[in-house]
Amino acid sequence: MAGLILALDVTDREKAINIANEVADYLHAIKIGWPLVMAAGMDIIDSLSQIKPIICDFKVADIPNTTKLIVREARNHGAMGIIVHGFVGRDSIKAAVDEAGKMKVYVVAEMSHPGALDFMQKHTDDIVLMAKEVGAAGLIAPATRPERITHIRSLAGDMEILAPGVGAQGGSAKEAIEAGATHIIVGRRIYEANEPAKAAKALYDELTL
Ligand code: NUP
Fold first, then answer.
1. Antiparallel, parallel or unpaired: β 104-108 and 81-85
2. Which of 15, 59, 132, 201 is catalytic?
3. Residue 3: which H helix or E strand, with range?
4. pLDDT, tens digit, for every residue of 82-110?
5. Is 61 exposed, middle or buried (0-12, 13-18, 19+ CB in 10 A)?
6. What ipTM is given for this predicted complex?
7. Would you tell me which of 58, 66, 107, 138 could form a disulfide with 160, CB atoms 3.0–4.6 Å apart?
8. Which entry of 52, 57, 94, 104 is annotated as an active-site residue?
């Protein structure tokens, strides 16, 4: 079944925990990234893990050894998954997968913003095939370009596809799932809403209709 992942890009620990509790019933997982971790510290992973599984969106893009050290920190704090960049190449992705243990590694295949067309899209196919071969659990693909999700799905087999870009960036939850995503990632549409639970429920309903 399709799932909703909250991108919790707030920079206040208490606010993060309050929103997570408020919308938890509708979520598959919570994705956190540099804004919240830099503001609240790595322990926020441990705290939020009590509410829902946590995916660390660290977009790791480094040599294999540094990648390994970053993946280990996320794992030691109880993260369920970590997002790494694919363009750095096979050895770095393999280092992430080898270090991840039970944690899932998600590889960015194509980003959702317009700038992804400058360089990244030219290499999407190779990144997807490499991520699959190396044993990554899933891919990040753009809800802003559902036709690209369909293309990426055609190469990805049964890998998970997490699609950011729904709501604030203009993408549609339903279209992303119909195109082949297994999960959508949504931030501002939920955490900037007057009633986050209502916003999360609306997206959840869209996925389950
Ligand atoms: O290609 C990507 N696009 C994207 O928006 C890869 C991502 N990881 N993200 C992240 O998804 C982005 O950093 C943010 O945390 C979330 C989308 O948030 P929003 O546009 O729904 O507020």
1. parallel
2. 59
3. strand 3-7
4. 999 999 999 999 999 999 999 999 999 99
5. middle
6. 0.99
7. 138
8. 57
